[in-house]
Each structure stands twice: as structure tokens, then as C-alpha cells.
Write a structure and sequence with these properties.
Shape: globular
Radius of gyration: 13 Å
Strand content: 35-45%
Number of strands: 5
Largest sheet: 5 strands, mixed
């Protein structure tokens, strides 16, 4: 897994987070973005992906769920450069190839 060059991102978007505890992502749809380069993934690349789905990066919140843990404990906000560094480290070192990212906003 350490030589992983690409990953696929599963985007859940257009819905809302509901309930707590036992949080769920309700509604929306799922799209996939394939062949994202691990080494070049950055906030700029992610913002480009968001824009391609019609989201305004200034008003959109994104969370990753790399390990598919329960939503109550497994959500990681993707907002700052360090968030992306940690996200890429998990993809590279833990071998996850399918990352679930939830979007909500304008």
C-alpha cells in the first residue's frame, strides 16, 4: 500500500447530517471521483473537485470518513492544509482506496 499512487473518492453530497447520537447522512446523492493522485492531493485539488460539482468552496463544508467509522466519531473536517496532510497519510499508510467525503453547503 505504501506505493499507492491513486485513490477513489466517494462523495456524498446534497444531503444533511441528521440525529445525534447515531448520526446519519440523510438524502443527497453519491458520486465517485477516480484516479486522484495521492502525492498531489491538496486543498486546491479538492476545491477543484468541489467546483466541478457546482459547490462554492467558500460556503461548503467537507468531512472525510476514511476508515468508515461511525459518523459520531469518525468524521474529520477537511478545512486546513494539515487536515489534507493527515488525510493523505491515512490513504498512503493504511491502504484505504475508497474515501467517503460528505459535503453540505450552498
Amino acid at each position: 500500500w505504501e506505493n499507492k499512487k491513486y485513490f477513489t473518492m466517494m462523495l456524498h453530497h446534497g444531503g444533511t447530517f441528521e440525529y445525534y447520537p447515531n448520526r446519519e447522512y440523510d438524502g443527497g446523492k453519491v458520486d465517485y471521483v477516480d484516479f486522484i493522485e495521492v502525492e498531489t492531493f491538496s486543498p486546491e485539488v479538492f476545491h477543484s473537485i468541489l467546483s466541478s460539482f457546482g459547490y462554492d468552496v467558500a460556503t461548503t463544508y467537507a468531512y472525510s470518513l476514511v476508515s468508515f467509522a461511525p459518523l459520531d466519531v469518525g468524521l474529520n473536517k477537511l478545512a486546513y492544509w494539515t487536515d489534507f496532510i493527515n488525510f493523505v497519510k491515512k490513504v498512503k499508510t493504511e491502504g484505504f482506496f475508497l474515501c467517503s467525503t460528505s459535503l453540505f453547503g450552498a
